[in-house]
């Protein structure tokens, strides 16, 4: 019932902002899909998906499970996600399990959620994963700072 109220609240907020109300794509419990989903608007997964998802808003329900990469503006996770994700807004419910690496702008995690992997905050306009390169000024382990500065010159 709590999820239903939340969905109604979000729909009302979208209508008040003047956004069109769209019908979500629903993958129901008991359905299993192997393949990628691209260019979706709102996708609600209660079944199983083995593949990558690219959409505006993704909701993985309490019976849903996704194995693959997720790229979305918003992700609400109530079920299981095993893979990597790049999102702007990430919500992980207490019933959820997420195993993998994530890049996000904002995150909310309820107590009881399982989260294993690397988490990184994106400061860019889009939540794209970026490789982390060591700074040239970083000294090697055990090497004095003075020796590292001398090596640069």
Can you characterise this structure?
- With 153 residues, the chain is an alpha/beta fold.
- Helices cover 15% and strands 42% of the residues.
- It has helices spanning 2-16, 145-152, and strands spanning 25-27, 32-34, 37-45, 48-50, 53-60, 65-67, 70-77, 80-82, 85-92, 97-99, 102-104, 106-109, 114-116, 119-121.
- Strands 1, 3, 5, 7, 9, 11, 12 and 14 form an 8-stranded parallel beta sheet that branches. A 6-stranded parallel beta sheet has the order 2-4-6-8-10-13, with no helix packed on it.
- The longest helix has 15 residues, at 2-16.
- It is globular.
Shape: globular
Instruction: Bin the helical content.
Output: 10-25%
Order of helices and strands: HEEEEEEEEEEEEEEH
Query: What kind of sheet is the major sheet?
Result: 8 strands, parallel
Query: What share of residues are in beta strands?
Result: 35-45%
State the helix count: 2
Judged by helices, strands and strand pairing, the structural class is: alpha/beta
| Rg, alpha carbons | 19 Å
Task: Note poorly predicted spans.
Answer: 129-153
The chain-level mean pLDDT equals 79
Number of strands: 14
Give the CA-CA distance, first to last residue.
65 Å
